[in-house]
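Hello again,

I reread your note about wanting to compare the complex against the isolated chains. To keep things tidy I'm splitting this into two emails, and this first one only covers the full assembly. Below are the input lines as submitted, including protein chains and any nucleic acid or small-molecule components. They are followed by the predicted structure of everything together. The single-chain runs will come separately.
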Amino acid sequence: MLFISIPFLIDPSDGYAFIMIMLGFVFTFRGIKLIVYYITMARYMVGGSRVLFSGILIFDFGLFTLSLNDIPPLLILLYLAVLHVFTGLVTIVNAVDTKKRGSKSWRLKMSIGLVNLIAGILCLVLLKESIAVDIYCAGMVYGGIMRIVTAFRRNKEIVIIN
Amino acid sequence: MQLDFHYYATYCASYLAGFDHNESVRIAYFAQFVDECHAALLRKLNAPGEAATTQLQMELLDSRTDLLGLQNITKIWSSFHFLPADLYAKRRGTRFYLNKYRLICGPDGELLKKTVELAKNKDLPSAGLAMHVLADTWAHRYFAGTPSLVINNTDQHFFEIFPDGTQKKIAFRHKTATDDPEKGLYSNSIFQNNENSIMNLGHGRAGHLPDYSFCVYKYLPAWGDYMELVKDNPSDYWKAFRQMIYALKYIRGDIPGFETGLYDEEAVRGHEDRIEAIIRKRQVDASDDWRAFGESLSGERVPDFDLGLYQEEYMAALKDEKAGTMLGMFFDAAIRQKNMVAREIFISKNPLAGIFSTKLSDLIAMSS
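Full-complex prediction:
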């Protein structure tokens, strides 16, 4: 996310194309990975069809994102902002669910979700202003940093085996 | 299973099988030691790392889940806590899926026979280790000792069944707090949709329910094609106890051979009601009851489990004398068991427990 946001900040006009290609490939490969996992393993599992649906949806999303190269930057920013809002909402729902299950890691998830949501809404409100690009990038930078923080955080989840 | 069964119940089984008090304490000690022998302890004792029979939570969370990391985890957990029931089990599925499916733990398998036979004519630590593996095949059945979402996952469909037949849905929480059966509060590991996540190792997704002898529950195992499965712990623990006695009689030399599917009936005669009462009592730790039963059998005091009991002896021994110490014997037994199970898994054309240099005879067996 950090990597994607830098060229976008430096040169927003070319950055649009770059960010769409990167996002498109990430979604496409993630979708393919899930579909392959479904075919080789998850189709034999109780509830495994959810893996297939997620895979198809994400793959479709990836192809759609890759196809958005020739449309006006305003529409691309609109698409990215909506994506940001959607990601924020999903993260907030996850955080609430995590809290309900008694895990302590919900606060971090909630903060990531709220920042994503607010950044997305601000982008939508200020869509025609140049600052919208900066807000979007700030959201991306925050998301990237928080993911790094999460990766290095001591895991407090319980593992029960023996 | 926990200390209550691995230590105190194993003591009772050993005594009923004919071992004297001191021998029974040692067998029970090393049955429990399987849950304590992790890499950090072995480093502290300057003992061989390959003798690890368990992994600490922190070791697991730091483990890699690439192929080599998975092989290390699988070698430990399949060999000592989730002994596979049938390495050649048939069902519809790709090779990737079958490799995991065939590691599902269960009692009375071919590997159990080999485990008990491996402990024959050896020492008390070997017998204790074999009893741990045997007992866990009953408690941990239906779960695999390798991280796998498609095998070990459970979902919301999880009910406890009470002795009067009533059922109550279990809503797991993710806390390290002790379970409270009276309030129906049980913890499990968090759902992770990554196939090889450590959260999907063993029975983590069913919490500690397999460890409670009183518990009867039903759920949908991830591998079960939507068929509801009833896990009757009291029945399984009763069989585990009697099979331990039968196996220990074989190890002692009182019985010429060990066959799966056979359980002792003689030695437990007259004790059935007491044993069943302990098994069915709703409690998360039955140590006191098993201990009282053991002491009533032998008339001796059963000591608390003391992790450091044999450590000084091992550390003080010279290099060539270490194998003769109690811990040295246990480490040898652990390495033998791990190699036997991992080799058998490899011979079944399953690479999840590692790649082994095989003898010509094994290569011929593999190709046929």
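For quick reference: Strands of chain B lie at 158-161, 167-169, 216-219, 229-232.

B.
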